[in-house]
Amino acid sequence: MATSFSPFTTSIIGSWPRTKEILIAQRKLRKGQMEQSDFDDLIERETARIIKIQDDLGLDVIVSGELSRDNYSSFVADRIGGVSMMSMDDIVDYIDDKKAFEDILSILDVPAISITNAICTGKLEYHPIAVNELKLLKKYTDKPVKITLPGPYLLTRSMWIPKLSKQGYASKEELGKDVVKILEQEIDNLQKLGVDIIQFDEPVLTEVVFTEGKPRSFMCAALSERKDPTEELEFAKSLIKPVLEHIDRSKSIASMHVCRGNWSNDESILLTGPYTPLLDLFENVSAEMLTLEFSTPRAGEISSLLGDEKISKDHIIGLGVENPRLHEAESTDFIVGKAKEALKYIPKERLFLNPDCGFATFSNRPVNKEEFIINKIKSLVDASHQLQAEYK
Prior knowledge:
Elements: E1 9-10, H1 20-30, H2 36-57, E2 81-87, H3 88-91, H4 98-107, E3 116-125, H5 131-140, E4 146-150, H6 152-159, H7 162-165, H8 172-193, E5 197-201, H9 204-210, H10 229-245, E6 253-258, H11 279-284, E7 289-292, H12 303-306, H13 309-314, E8 316-322, H14 332-342, E9 351-355, H15 370-390
Parallel strand pairs: 1-9, 4-5, 5-6, 6-7, 7-8, 8-9
Antiparallel strand pairs: 2-3
Helix pairs in contact: 1-2, 6-8, 8-10, 14-15
């Protein structure tokens, strides 16, 4: 049976800043200057350390920190056949509207060589994606654990570049079908080992609804051409729903994480808008848990989500109560206040507490530092304990 969680369960979203040693090792490994076994040993040591920090600070659900990943989506290029790792600098040659693409990079201050993307260049072939991360988690903690994976819509959108991807698939839709199959195989392998929460990240959903009629957002390497937003959300739903439905709910919670971008400390360039345009999708993709950004005004009012009766009745909410990009820790009063606002709509048993997003979406461009993250976790855990005492 799936783990039973207490009210106000705490966790972080997924990513943790990599040390300088890991970043150097990643470069050496890619250049063939380091043995895979030596890299794996380093990742295990650092993962064990990150797990201990989370455990000692009192988080209820533990994550791996995603330390071996280049970024939270492109790392699949190392773990799925038919996918190639490319920098934005490499990709620009294959983009039809080069000027628009370069404008996006310029507006959002993203160096073209500093961020990589996984591009489909042939037929996909399954290999384990996060199975080794789960093995490390279970080796170093007895607490409930969460595995994070890029969602099927994010992967399909970001991997599809027609001039390259048509070597394997006639269309983005055909690619999407195989992405779903790949993730279903991964779910099977994760659940065989035992995992308490499987979280799929779908930040590109906000790029669909919050940039209509505005300059396009880079939004986590969402490169392929969008259709009409309504049509695009239907496409997203067709990919997300079968993947989440594939999760055996007697073994794991099926979670979907959505934010508004996490590549910069400059809040002014990140997306803004309430979840209202996504309510229909949220209601119909079979996500048992919605893990969402709510600590900043950019996310809109909590009522814009939980005022929807189907959402408040049927879902666990992972409430974002901390901005991962700010160094200063949120006060316990702020976190408790956000939680109490949510409690107007949902029972305490279905309220989890977490930051808005990860702390290091891109390996070489983390949005925060470990010393500040530790203070944020302390604040998160203290607020949870205060709420548990008040709502016995």
